[in-house]
Amino acid sequence: MTKQLTLLALEKLLNSRFKEGFLSLKDLPQPSTFKDMDRATARIVKAIEAKEKITVIGDYDVDGVTSTTLMKLFFEEIDYPIEWIIPNRFRDGYGLSSNIIPRITGTNLAITVDNGISAVYAAQLCKEEGIELIITDHHLLAPEIPEAYAIVDQKQKDCTFPYEEVCGAQIAWYLIASLKNALNVKIDMMDYMELTTLAIIADMMPLQHINRAMVLSGIERLNKSQRPAIKAFKEHSQKETISAEDIGFFLAPLLNSAGRMDDAKYAVEFLASTNIYDARVRLGRLVDFNNARKATEQEITSKALAQVNPEDEVIVVEGEEWHEGVVGIVAARVARHHEKPCIVLSNNGEGMLKGSGRSFGVCDLFAITDSCRSHLEKFGGHQAAIGLSMRLESLEAFKKQLQINYLEGNYTKEEVDPDIVGELHFKEISFELTKLIQKYQPYGQGNPTPKFLSTNVEILQADTMGKEGEHLRFSFAQEGIVMAGVQFKTRENYEVGSQVDVIYTVNENHFRGNVTLQLMVDKIIVKYKER
């Protein structure tokens, strides 16, 4: 399956992920390489000079919240008053929509961040209301694009910005850089970089090329940050330093939970806090939202799992008034559990189903659902994640069509995890190995943490840990070499003496001044048990 790995082979493999080598901030392209960036900048400068009313419209995920915060902080720094709106997931739907227009009448210039490229109808309404529109977005373009004064989106065909995979907050950061130059104001762009980093990681941008450079310098800046929100987060999480993992697994879910459970404006208010006392109170509110999100998600996940038809290649489940804010996370959990794409729908009790889907493996969930449009009311997304709505009476026909489309797509199940870089013997696990792994950080999308496989391993010890015994602590042995291991969030039982294959990542465990190596277990394959 895999060959024995050496340090040299691993270095070669990790290095091959960075075609351009490691870039730094001096390699960032100029703002004007974006199509319409100069045009958008000139129009905003004109609005400032003429004291026009400017409104920024964001989105309720971390990227949208961060983009909105960046714009809010910039206009505060240059002392120009603006309005900002983040649509409410439940009342307004996504992005610049017709529901938002009544709230922005009287605006001279509307600027979208992290949304707007599909807002054809809303853009028409803006025109009718005499609102000039600048769209900044990073999503794919539909066949019909909105009519706007300027559109800054790197996915436009005639855009010369060299990197296709950047997020909304990066484009907002670039717009601020462009405005800084045009207005000739003294502001520190690195202050804005630390927040942009949160969005690059949370929006799962590939951590390569300029994204890696921005994240590395952003994290360095976060760790020196005097921003009350960041200080409050460090205090709450008892972290002296913040890593990419801390952002992805702890801070991003907190920021996301506001939009999932109530209103994303609370996340903007937290990030923009001007003193530590406000930041603590606002963080407390996000923690409450996140706890409620976890409980709701757990409850719906167990209901969804109970409904799964194991015969289906694409799982579709639905329930009465399941919380719309968590159906996407539930879909991801069910997809991972069954190793199949999954769509989770919430029935509003009035014959309408609305929900989210998450793909698994190589399946293009967008493509196979796109061919079912005749059964759908609304639909959007990309290869790995979709949002959709339909009438209840269309459900059965939709399900049937979806299974057919999947089979026609000839998706073969990947039996081997593509993140496994090779087979490793315990004798190769050393601080030299972890030092090499650290050199290629941060890990994430496009640069996954290297996973290893060790075969013919004996379990010497397997004890539960955690408040509710939801984690396992191991002692493994391979040809006389003993390694400690940890597996999080598992209810599996393993017998001492079992012979297993282990899939894992390696990390350094720093505890009370001691540094030890441990395996972070991803999967255990039992070969045979001791009698």
Report the mean per-residue pLDDT as an integer. Answer: 94
Question: What's the gyration radius in Å?
Answer: 24 Å
The tally of helices reads 15
Low-confidence stretches: none
Strand order of the largest sheet: 2-1-3-4-5
Strand content: 15-25%
Name of the CATH class of the largest domain: Alpha Beta
Distance between the termini: 28 Å
CATH topology name of the largest domain = inorganic pyrophosphatase (n-terminal core)
The helicity comes to 25-40%
The major pleated sheet works out as: 5 strands, parallel
Features:
single chain; 531 residues; alpha/beta; inorganic pyrophosphatase (n-terminal core); Diaminopimelate Epimerase, Chain A, domain 1; OB fold (Dihydrolipoamide Acetyltransferase, E2P); 3 domains; five-stranded parallel beta sheet; five-stranded mixed beta sheet; 15 helices
